[in-house]
Amino acid sequence: MNTLPQQLANGLLLGSMYGLIAIGYTMVYGIVQLINFAHGEIFMTGGFGALSVYLILPDSINIWVALPLMLIGGGLVAVLIAVGAERFAYRPLRGAPRLAPLITAIGLSLALQEAIRNFYPQADKPRVFPELGEGSYEIGSITFKNADLFLIVAAVVCMTGLAFFVRRSRTGRAMQATAQDPDTAQLMGIDTNRIIVIAFAIGGFFAAVASVAYGAKYGHVEYRMGFLMGLKAFTAAVLGGIGNIYGAMVGGLVLGIAEVTASAYIDGIPGMGEFGGSSWANVWAFCLLILVLLVRPQGLLGERVADRA
Amino acid sequence: MRQRSLLILTSVLTTGALSLTACGSRDDDGGDNSGDGESTTLTIGVDAPLSGENSATGLGIQYGSQIAVDDANKKNLVPGVTFKLKALDDKAQPATGQQNASALVGDKTVVGAVGPLNSGVAQSMQQVFNAANLVQISPSNTAPELTQGKNWQSGDKKRPYASYFRTATTDANQGGFAAAYAVKDLKKKRVFVVDDKQAYGAGLAKIFKEQFVKLGGKAAGTDHVNTGDKDFGSLVTKIKNSKADMVYYGGQYDESQLITKQLKEAGAKIPLMGGDGMFTPTYIKTAGKVSEGDLATSVGVPADTLPSAQDFIKTYKAKKYKGDYGTYGGYSYDGATAIIKAVGAVKDANGGKLPTGDELRKKVLEAVGKSNFDGITGTVAFDKYGDTTNKQLTVYQVTKGEWKAVKTDEYTGEAN
C-alpha cells in the first residue's frame, strides 16, 4: 500500500490548522509589529466558547445545525478576548519599548490558561468536544472523516474571504496602508486604532474556527492546547514570511506536511532509523525553518520584513 | 530605551521570584515541633500529579493515602501520635517533583512520603530523599531501574537508593505478563510498539517487545511519540500499513487515548494494549466507543474484587473524593500504612518514646524495610531491593465502556 497520499493528506490537514492560527500572528505583526504570544490562548478560548454553546443547546440537536452556532459562539468569545487584550493590555503600551508588550503577551497567555483551568467547569482535564458525526470516508487510499472535511473547507473559505476583504474592501485597503506606514496612513485620514482592532478581531475569529476544527478532529479541548499550537502557528507565520497573510497559510501547509512526512519516512532511509519517527517530527520541522531562514531570511513569501524586525 | 526595558524585565523577574519564595516559605512553617509532649503530630508527605496530565490517577494516590492517615488516627494505630497528610502537586514534571522532595525534607514533621506516580519523576526525587534518610514508598512506579539499578537487565542488580520502596511490581513483570497474554491468550502475531520516550513508557515497551519476540511473535514496527502530542495521523498511517494485528503503547493515557481513537477512525480495527499508565476510566471517556476491546495490564489485583479493600472503597466513595482509586488507591493506602506502622514499631523499640530529628527518620526507614503485614492489596513486604514481594498482575479489557478484569495471575517467568 502506498502511504504517500494519506500522509500528504495528514500533513495538509495539520497544516491548514496551523495556517488558520498563523493568520492571527501575521496580521497583528504586519500592522503593529507585535508578536502576540497570547494568540495561542485566544485559539484555546475559542474552543471553550464553542463547547459552551454546544452544552447549552439541547442534546437532540443535529450537529450540523449546532456547528454554525458553535462557530459563532466560539468566534464571539475569541474575538472579544482578542479585542479586549488589544484595548486593555497592548494599546496602553503602544510606543513603549518592544520588550514591554512582549512580556505582557506572555503574562496574558498564562493568565488566560489559568483562568480557563480554574473557572471553566472541569477544565483541569480534557473536556470531550462533540465530533461531527461518526464514520469515515475513503477516496482511493485516503481515509478521512467529517471533521477533516470541515477543516479543509473552513480553511479555504476563510482564506479566500480574507484575500477578498484585504484586496477589495475599503477597510482592507486601509489595512494595507496602515501596514506599510502607520503614520502616513493616519495623516491620510485612516483611523489606525480601528484598523488594529479589526486585525485582532479577524485573527481571533480565524483562531476560533481552527479551534472548533481541532476539537472536532481530536475529540476534546483542554486548557493547555494553545501553547504548542500557538508555537507551531507562530513558526508557520515566520516560515511563510511574517506580516504576509498568504505566507501564513503557505507556511502552515509547508510546516504540517514537513512534520508528517518527516515522521513517516525519515526512519526508512538506511542509517537514519534513529532519527525518524513521530518524536523527531518537531526537530525536522525546525531544521526546515532554519534552512529556509538561512536562504530567505524574509520567509517564503515575505517581502518587507528585513527593515522592520 | 534599552535600559528602561531591562529595568522592567528585572523588576518583573524579581517580583516573580519573590512571590514564588513566598509560596515556598508558607508551606514550610506548618511544622510544629516533634518529640516530647503527650500528643505529637507527624506528617506523611504525598507527591503526585494533582493537576493537569495524569491528575486522575494522581488524585487517587492523594486520597488513598488520606484514608490511610484518617484510619490510623481513628484506630489510634500509634498511641500518642496523630498523623496528617501533606500533598504536593508535581504536575508530572521531574523538576517539580524534586522541589517537592526538598520541601518535604525541609519540613521536620515529615516522617515519610508516598509517591510519586511517574517513574521519571521518581528518578529526580530519590537522591533528595536518600540524602535525608527519608523513606519514600511509591504506589505506582514500575520502572525496574528505580530499585535494581541501571544494569538490572544484564543481571547486575544493585539497589541505587536505600530510601526508596514501592508497593507496585516492576515492568519486568508487567511487560512480560502482557506479552505472554498477547501471544498465548490473544494469539497475536505482529505487534507495532510505540512509546513516549519517558523512563516508564520506553522501559515497558522495550520489555514487552523483547518478551513478545521471545515467545514467537514479530515486531511489525516501532515508533516513539512526544508527550503532549495530539496529532498521530502520520503514526496511524504507518501502523495501518505495517499490517500489525495489535498495537502496544508504553506510556500514559494522555497519548494512548488519542492514538487508539485516530487509529480506529483511520480504519484499522486492531486493539491497543498498554500498561498501568493507561488503566483509567478517563481513557475510555476520551477515546469513546472505539476503545472497546483495548487492553491494559495493571499491577496487583483489581481493588473492587478484594474483600479486604471493600471498606476502603466505601470510604472513598462516601467522602466523594475526586480521582480514580482503582489503580493505585489501595497501594497508596498500604504505602502510607507501612510508614505509619513503622513509626509505631520505632516508638515501641525505643521504650514508648519517639526519637527526635534525623534519628527518627533513619529508624523509620529501617522499620519500613522490615514491613510485613496484611494490607488491603495483599501482603505488604519488601525484598532487598525495596520491591514489593506481591507480584500479582491483572489484564483488563474495555468491555461495554468499562475496564473489566479478564485475567489475574502471579507472574513467574522473570524477564531474565
Automatic annotation (TrEMBL), chain A:
**Cross-referenced SUPFAM superfamilies:** ABC transporter involved in vitamin B12 uptake, BtuC (SSF81345)
Q: Which CDD domains match?
A: TM_PBP1_LivH_like
Q: Which Pfam families match?
A: BPD_transp_2
Keyword annotations from UniProtKB, A to Z = Amino-acid transport, Cell inner membrane, Cell membrane, Membrane, Transmembrane, Transmembrane helix, Transport
Protein topology in the membrane? Multi-pass membrane protein
**Top-level lineage group:** Bacteria
Record keywords: Transport included?
yes
The places in or outside the cell where this protein is found are: Cell membrane
Family to which the UniProt record says this protein belongs: Belongs to the binding-protein-dependent transport system permease family. LivHM subfamily.
Task: Output this protein's name.
Answer: Branched-chain amino acid ABC transporter permease
- Show the taxonomic lineage: Bacteria, Bacillati, Actinomycetota, Actinomycetes, Kitasatosporales
